[in-house]
Amino acid sequence: MDPSLYPDVSPVCEECQVDKPTEPLQRYCCGTGCKPCVFDLYDEDLQNWKRHCYENHQGRHSVVAINNSPVLTPSSFTTFELIKITAVSGDTNLYRFKIPNGGSLHLSVGQHVVLRGTYEGRSITRQYTPVNSLHSKGYFDVFIKVQK
């Protein structure tokens, strides 16, 4: 069945109690035509959410498999442990994330990662360019400016 045919429901599926993905604002797109774009990821998350809800409503329960290799894939998010936050200025912090098994992101100069998290109940998706050496193993760092 095609999940795009499932009707849209409220931000939280009443039957499943699963939050609907939050659509990113236009300003979150970097405008460079990168693949996947934050809107591609949102569309995929929305389709997966609809499929999950539909299957739960039908009495089937879907399970999402996590692919641990390679560290990054263009079509799914990977969970990284936040291991350190260093204040750089009044509104900017350096966030260090652990890469499992001493791995590396294998990014080139100018490439970015798409980070997603939840803050005050809202899903937030942003692009960041890691600022550590391309040869760093076991971690990556990003600067994040906190907007209040």
- Which series of helices and strands comes N to C? HEEEEE
> What class would the helix/strand composition place it in?
alpha+beta
Number of helices: 1
Q: Which stretches of 5+ consecutive residues score pLDDT under 50?
A: 1-9, 61-69
Q: In oligomeric terms, what are we looking at?
A: single chain
- Overall pLDDT score: 76
Sequence of strands across the biggest β-sheet: 1-2-5
Please give the radius of gyration in angstroms.
17 Å
Plain-language structure description:
The chain is an alpha+beta fold and 148 residues long. Helices cover 14% and strands 24% of the residues. It has a three-stranded antiparallel sheet, with no helix packed on it. A two-stranded antiparallel ribbon has the order 3-4. The radius of gyration is 17 Å and the shape is globular. The N and C termini lie far apart (43 Å). 5% of the residues are buried.
Write the layout of secondary structure elements.
Elements: H1 38-57, E1 81-87, E2 92-98, E3 113-119, E4 122-128, E5 139-145
Keywords:
148 residues; alpha+beta; three-stranded antiparallel beta sheet; two-stranded antiparallel sheet; 14% helix; disordered N terminus
Brief account:
The model is unreliable at 1-9 and 61-69 (pLDDT under 50). The relative contact order is 0.16. The chain has 148 residues and is an alpha+beta fold.
